[in-house]
Amino acid sequence: MERPTAILRRLLILESIQAHITRELARVKEQMLTEDLRIIERQASAMDVRIQYRVGNHYDEAVFMRKMLEAEAANRAKRTGMIPR
Predict the structure, then answer these.
(1) CA 52 to chain centre
(2) What's the helix, strand, coil split of the chain in %, to 5?
(3) What is the radius of gyration, based on Cα positions, of the chain?
(4) Which of 1, 8, 18 lies closest to 80 in space, CA to CA?
(5) Cα angle, residue 47 at apex, residues 20 and 50 outer, rounded to 5°
(6) 34: how many CB neighbours lie within 10 A of its CB?
(7) How confident is the prediction along the chain (85 residues), in pLDDT tens digits per residue?
(8) What angle do CA 84, 68, 80 make, to 5 degrees?
(9) Distance separating alpha carbons of residues 45 and 85, to the nearest angstrom
(10) Could you give the CA distance from residue 81 to residue 85 in angstroms, rounded to a whole number?
(11) Can you tell me the distance from the alpha carbon of 60 to that of 26, in angstroms, rounded to the nearest whole number?
(12) CB environment 46-84: b (16+ within 10 A), e (fewer)
């Protein structure tokens, strides 16, 4: 059984991480506006995430493998201590 103070500490740390993530999302959205980057369409499947986007007057499409995105997110979460190793 985990100590109550350890659980409370995890809660406070996660709340702090959540605040950092919220600020980072705002920064990314601001950067997208600054660079005139717009998402036109986003399609998610079990295998990948396909995004059609526009930068200025140029239209393009990008495909991101879901497993790679999930692995990178899990790796970053582990490094921050957000999830156990």
Answers:
(1) 18
(2) 55, 30, 20
(3) 17
(4) 18
(5) 70
(6) 8
(7) 889 999 999 899 889 889 989 999 999 999 999 999 999 999 999 999 999 999 999 999 999 999 999 999 888 888 776 666 5
(8) 30
(9) 27
(10) 8
(11) 23
(12) eebeebebeeeeeeeeeeeeeeeeeeeeeeeeeeeebee
Strands (E) in 4-74, as ranges, are 37-44, 48-55, 58-65
Tell me how crowded residue 26 is: count the other CB atoms within 10 A of its CB.
10
Residue 37, burial from CB neighbour count under 10 angstroms (0-12, 13-18, 19+): middle
The CB-side HSE value for 30 (13 A sphere, CA atoms) comes to 6
Cα–Cα separations (whole angstroms), residue 53 to 33, 40, 43, 59, 81: 13, 5, 12, 6, 33
Please identify which residue in the block is written with the tokens 């999302």: 25
